[in-house]
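Chain X:
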Amino acid sequence: MRFLCLIGLCICFATGAVAAPKTLVVGAGDCQSVELVTGLNDFSDALREQLKTDLYEPDVVLDIVRPRPTRSLEDVERQIESARTLFYNGQLERALDLLRQALAELERAPIAGQPWKVTSQALALQGVVLTMLNKKPEAADSFRRVLRVEPAHALSRDEFTPSVIAQFEGHRRELARQKRATMTVQSTPPGAEVLIEGKVMGVTPLKLDLAPATYRLAARAGERVSYLRVVSVPRDGQVQVDLAAEGALSTQAPLCLAASEKLAEAAALKLANTVTADDLLMVRLEGRKGEPGRFVASRYEIRSGSMVREGRVQAPSRGKPAFGALATFLLTGQGSSLIVSPEAPASARPAQPQAAAGPSSTSKSSSTPSASSQAPLEPMPPPPPPPAVEARGPISAGRVASFALMGAGVASLAGGVVAWLSGDADRTSLASLLVNGRLPEPSAPTHRQALDAIARNGSNQTLTFALLGAGVGLAAAGLVSFFAFPAEPVSVTALPLGGGGGGVFVSGGF
């Protein structure tokens, strides 16, 4: 039995290591308010002490939705010019290294800043360098990346040789013959500029005909900029951008949404879903101008989209201990005298400490009549306790564990079968893309599609074999424990108690 318990503990720890919960903290309101920003930082510090690595850091979130550059666009342009000089001096490998660094930095450049002009220059020069290094498949990919976004792009005859220009024109004709796909982009509100790889393509609602590939897409309207999206054509035929919610997010830490309470709630939930967080804590400042404010923090469960609980603390007179109490209350439901009831005036009447609440509890206090306002009643003698009900059955704890293991094994095996069936479309697609069982030539339009299909098929096989292997192991462990631990009598006693309660007592061999 101890062996089986050890197996169960290992499974639980392994599961927790794979899917550790993540909590996101975001503020809402006037993101320029020093009081809100300071309180949000103090509250995040209090949460970090309790959650450790389970708390999403603002920089990580911003890099997901809006990758931020480490250098300015002017610095990248100078690096490309240095690479051009190295190329003319015959130092091809060093020039290629600089160009790859510049292109990696351009992928982090704010797409709303329209970095396409610099990106196209770097890609064209990289294609020439790769051609000189006899890396023709990579050179072709660089040239195609330019032409997919800007089919009319032309190389300067003053900078490039006739042979390079002829090669570039050959790729243009090849892409012109390739079947294109339609992608529709809509935004709320409409009329936003749509940028592909940093190049303005039009305003929403917009219909684009693009060559099948992967693109970076963003939308902007005035000061509001959407999250960065990586779209795959033709799979992503329709793209919907909620610019009102996405554009409300500040561009620097701490995470803050410059929006009204109702819009901020929807925007915060959208952000939490985008970064795949499990829990969301939204902080806002309430109170009239000229009066001491209160920080309100609400906890949401992302899976259900519902609020778990909400708490308030007086600010700033209570200081950092109040934020620690607020963090504890939101995470565990444990009350504190520092938690302010919703009905308390701005002078912050402290609420009485309360017991740990369940998942759906809130900090709102419920009023009950005072005991002193009621007339004393003659105590009634307690009724005699009902008789206990006892039942015995031929089952042991070992048998219960064996059934649980075999059930988990069957479920894992079923999951493996489902995973294998779900990858049938990828296997069929891969078979149709292969030429006599081999990959198409790198210059063929289906080469990248075949690589993607191989990657998806590999992931599907890994998941399938992992589930099948785990299922066989669990089922085998369940069968071994079934025969190793014979049935033993287990006594179950139900004992009703006073006040409408009761108790169940289980005894037996373990």
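Chain Y:
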Amino acid sequence: MKPSTVFLIDDDESVCEALSLLVETAGYASVAYYSAEEFLAAWRPNDHGCLLLDMCMPGMNGAELQEEMLRRGIRLPIIFMSAFADVPTTVRVIQGGALDFLTKPVNGAVLIERIQRALTADESARLAEIARHDLRDRLEKLTFREREILCLAIAGKPNKEIAQLLDISHRTIEAHRSRILLKMGVHSLLALSSLAADAGVRIETFACGTPMPGQMPVSHPSEH
């Protein structure tokens, strides 16, 4: 994965320089911007890390940038900084998902601790997203019949009942279940359920009888 970066946004150049020095002395890469608009123009989807964001700036302010980031799907953890914090604004940005709101002048040790926490949160979110995509990709590679069997099995149906419902042999069900587990990279349905829960994927969304996009629910004679 691309290394994490601490993105700094403050219209005061001296503040950006001081924050950059603090962050880089602590061992983190940093990039400074002097406006929200400059940051948005430079942003790339594979950028990761956290954002130190000034609240009061000319043009788009910090709260407005947060809203625009949410609209664009930019999920960087945000640490707000302001010399003029008020309760309604603080509540607004925290409810909007900000990790923290610090009052300027910010204590250096406190800021580094919050940055560490933000970077850990970002890395966890990145790994979870990778796990979600990987699991969804594997689920989408299941055949129509395999998805039928998986959905019934996840619902707690034993092999014998699944065989009766689908009008195929018990042995065929066992063979399909083995292939499903192999494709999913797990040893049991319990492990698959746990993996799906950790990744935030609902296996039930791959409903029985609902083909994947571009895949028709065709019954294969060899499966009966």
